Amino acid sequence: MNLGLENKVAVVTxxxxxxxxxxxxxxxxxGARVAICGRDPGRLEKAVASLGHSERLLAASCDVTxxxxxxAFAASVLLRFxxxxxLITNAGQGRVSTFADTDDAAWRAxxxxxxxxxxxxxxxxxxxxxxxxxxxxxxxNSLLAYQPEPHMVATSAARAGVQNLLKxxxxxxxxxxxxxxxxxxxxxxxxxxxxxxxxxxxxxxxEAWFAGVARDKGIPLARLGTSDEPARxxxxxxxxxxxxITGASLEVSGGVSRFA
Length: 260
Ligand code: NDP
Known about the structure:
Layout: E1 9-13, H1 18-29, E2 33-38, H2 41-51, E3 57-61, H3 67-81, E4 86-89, H4 104-131, E5 136-142, H5 153-172, E6 178-184, E7 187-188, H6 190-197, H7 206-217, E8 225-226, H8 228-238, E9 249-252
Parallel strand pairs: 1-2, 1-4, 2-3, 4-5, 5-6, 6-9, 7-8
Helix pairs in contact: 1-8, 3-4, 4-5
The protein binds NADPH dihydro-nicotinamide-adenine-dinucleotide phosphate.
NADPH dihydro-nicotinamide-adenine-dinucleotide phosphate binds at residues 13-14, 16-20, 37-40, 43, 62-65, 90-94, 140, 142, 184, 186-187, 189-192, 227.
């Protein structure tokens, strides 16, 4: 199947690690021009080295919760590529906290990250997406939106709100821009590697630790996902091959969901 991505311009927020990095890699392999962003300069530099295709790659420093950063990122994409056909809102991370240990500052920070990591890039890139014949947004979200976990109370609540927002946007932006999301289960990437590094029992191996997580979570496919697995789903939804899909969410979770 031809995804129709040759020469398209795709923007991936948080494209310097994990799922975003693998998404950028597939987009480049499909012939797209790609812009990635992240905050950490070291991670940006490593991503550029690992992705190659420098003639079709733009890497920018940008915190997606800061409007001026995001506007500057959009301006640099316009300057370099003259267009944007695809926006993948992927940047972010989860917050482990219960209601008892989430103070107001933590609530505000989490709601800010989850909502503004969508709102600001979508607002900044919408004028470019509007001009594309195949404009598409894919948001990276979590199963927590439908299946909240008490130990991630703020993240779960914010994720649910984001799914609701995306559904509104799919209607408001139609027929020009398609808006879809993927809802993730557990995928080994930067944030899970950091949790493994911070494990209480340092004697436990990486393999045993991740197998234990999969067992504890009751994942039917008996493992966590790898970054390229959601990346392939993201690229499909973003591509012209998914031309009649909007307002949808695709679960990439190894079968762990309990909702319909
Ligand atoms: P990684 O930590 O590997 O990658 C996160 C990426 O986002 C990095 O490039 C990071 O770069 C960037 N980022 C984080 N915060 C910001 C910010 N404020 N502005 C710009 N860039 C930012 O994580 P994953 O690949 O696992 O996560 C991708 C997305 O999927 C995230 O939104 C995450 O919350 C979500 N998700 C992941 C799950 C999983 O199991 N892996 C489960 C559910 C959801 P830098 O830090 O340098 O800015």
